[in-house]
Fold each of these.
Amino acid sequence: MKYLALLRTLFVILLLPAVMSYDRYHYHKNISSLDGAWQAVRGNKTISMIVNDGYCMISTYNLEGRQFFNTRGGNITVENDRIILKVQFNSADSTEVGKIQKYSYSIQDDILNTDIEDEKTAYKRADAGKGELAGNWRITRRKQGDKMVDAPLRARRTLKLLTGSRFQWAAINVETGEFSGTGGGTYTFAQGKYTENIEFFSRDNSRVGASLSFDDTIENGNWIHTGLSSTGNPIYEVWSRFKE
């Protein structure tokens, strides 16, 4: 009996590292499987969900009618078959900021089924989240007049999340829940030319349908963004990859 008990103990000891390794692989595989851009159509509304660098932004809008309805987002992880979202902004309900929300999900053949927007909906993958600019970015420096000014990390921040083909920026306050604005759509980046095609804009729907081009480079891991803003003002910004 003692011999059998010893064999069982040795078996568990030998098996445990393999099980832990599988769990870690399975966990990270599930997180990366969400990376990229997902879209669904519900009536006359388009729902855009983009995920990268452990961050998520979800927006609902009507492109033809130039209507913006709402957006929310925050840090995203996966546990078993559940999406876990720690809300950092919600344009429709600031009281949601700071809350942990869980949703069911499954992925098959590039179709994501999830109830992350109230009812179970099928989202089609638009891209897999790969690209030179893909990731979560934060403004860390900008030119004001003739001077470069640092933008230290504070509760109020502007983030820009990019996948392989889609982008969204959001100006938020993670402590007060204040939401200052957002915009998003598709983008291209080639030979130093970065172009945004705006599909929704919370502040001014007259910007919807516009294309803005910038002369951008990646230097020492930072994204140098120069050109004219949507209001026609010159900008020079430094964006850095951001993770909390």
Amino acid sequence: MNSILDKVRTLFSSSKFVVNQLIFIHVSIFAILFLFRVINSFGDDPFPLLSFALSNLELSAPIFEFITKPWTLVTYTFTHLGVFHILFNMLALYWFGNLLEEYIGATKVLHIFLLGGVLSGLFYVCIYNLLSYSTFSNVHSQLHGSSAAIYALLFAGATLIPNYEFFFFQRFAVKIKYLAFAALFLSFFDLSSGLSHAGGALVGFGYISLLRKGINLGAPISFFSRLFRRNPFKRKSTVDPRRSYSKSIVSKRMGVFQEEKKHFPDQEEVDAILDKISTSGYESLSKDEKHKLYLASQRKDE
């Protein structure tokens, strides 16, 4: 038991494991809901655990229900009921989350995921209530699942590295931009899913577009996360966050030890590298450019 707890602590000990952390949270909530379903299957439950949980986790689109439970803008993203629903969503989260993490870092992946869920939820609530005044009402009133947040990751990838290729069955190469638009188009066969996914797609596109202009939509998330750190009064380091130093290397020159400096690339360098990826693909980068991109992904958000 202690070993399991130790592994969980290790998993959540660093922000570098964001994708795995998100998957763990999703699976844990799914397991709890599944347990509630098993309990309810034994007969009439005087306290219906599953329905109570869902009423406080799912997003209710009718405006008067939504305003009484605003926290569901966050919780609905982590709520799944079907095995295949959570399976395919977690696979997509693993693929696209890790892909983006390689280019922009784990923190921004978390920002895109959370913003994708919250903003697409608001988008869905608005559209639902606008359509409720018309005769067109083929839209579900309840929303759950992380699909919209994953579409935010997918379209962030399609905006950042549109020519990145996925190889299916080791034969067919599909660029991420085509994959993203095809998936969004197919999702509209169910209007409710399509609307939710479209909201996530807009968030992913908007996040990367604004990031290229120096605007980080995830900055408020970083600010509030700092408020809940274990040691909020810990003295800040005086070292420039844009520059760090690797371990000392022995230099025989004139018998003096020299310090090898490691400079983080500025935004202009990163943008130039990303433009090159968009045009010619990741493999066209030199070793130095790949190293700079890696350093940029590890850079702490300011």
Amino acid sequence: MCQEYNISRSVIRIVFTRLNKENLIDILPQRGTYVSLFDLDHIRNLEILRTAVEKEIIFQIITTLKDEEIDNIVKKLKENLEKQLEYNECDHYDKEFEKVDYEFHQILYNSLGRESLLSLVSESMLHLVRWRAFNVAFDHRIKELIIEHSIIIEWIAERNIIEAQNAIARHLKTVASMDKRAREQYPEYFKGDK
């Protein structure tokens, strides 16, 4: 890796130590360094946390902002949705789609001046981001994500808190829909036997 990236061994050690502390890699002395397996219990916990935060974001948007501010958010979300539609026929989780998907959620946080909250959530959610990439690729979910985003927009536009919160919860909950199938097809990717 030192030669490939033209950096020193000490930099590699620092990076590997940090990745190991975040449980993204496993370092096995005398055997090697490996990408960590998916821990679905941990990912389920992260899904609950992120869902709670985004449901609260939606609640605050609808209950604290003026109608013209909500209309502006809806306009930005629809513009973002137009960008997403460019990837509608994509059969893999394109990095560019991932950016547009992130931007969709960023619009929600930014509308309340909560940019730092999104950064905080994102930093602690690396396992969820990793899972999301696997999930979308495994089930070819890009079309489904776009539809889910459009439903979220619709309920926000209608100022329907409950339906908007339910839509974001369905959108963010991914483990239950595929964990058994994914474990059967790729058992070597997962920790434990749940």
Amino acid sequence: MKSFKNTCLILVLVIIQVYLVKAQDAPQYKYIISSESKLWFEGTSTLHGYKCVAKEITGFFIMKEMISDSTPIEFNNAAVAGIVQIPVLSIESGKGKMDKKMRKLLKADDHPEIIFELTSLELTASPEAGKDQVQLKTMGNVKVAGVEKTIALEVIGNLEANGTIRFTGSKKLLMTDFNIKPPTMFFGRLKTGNEITVYFEIALIPSIQISLN
């Protein structure tokens, strides 16, 4: 009886090992963030609204397979990992004083980048007839001014004819969630609202196939 149990245990271990080897052998594909990607955020104040634009966005996504068309099967759980990096100094409003204050609030000297790390990407709705896009839900961790939060994003995914994958969406965030006090200017006459809305259009282009061996 003991010998039979040992044989079963060995068999299970062999099966697990074979599975892990096959998983490691599976190729993965790296997509890099294109320079045509866009990200900006908008907010309000007691005097007027404002808009800040990121002039530089870098990063990459690792996919389980090369996306060849926008079918639900290929988009669902396709991403293994992803990272989006935005240098704080690249964010501009077009107003020098406001940019200087924003960089101080974002602690640019100690935390020079805003970073988003993807943890999951799932299909939430199949493509509508005649449309080459899908609705996706992503989860990830965003780090701003040294404070990290987990957020969910509703995203539209679209595959373009040249192989580019484009993710678009928006997300409302509160400054105070990242320990940032909404700034004031002109001796308190201008007060900004706590809530901002982040808009993004991330374009991914195929880069290389990754071998895990």
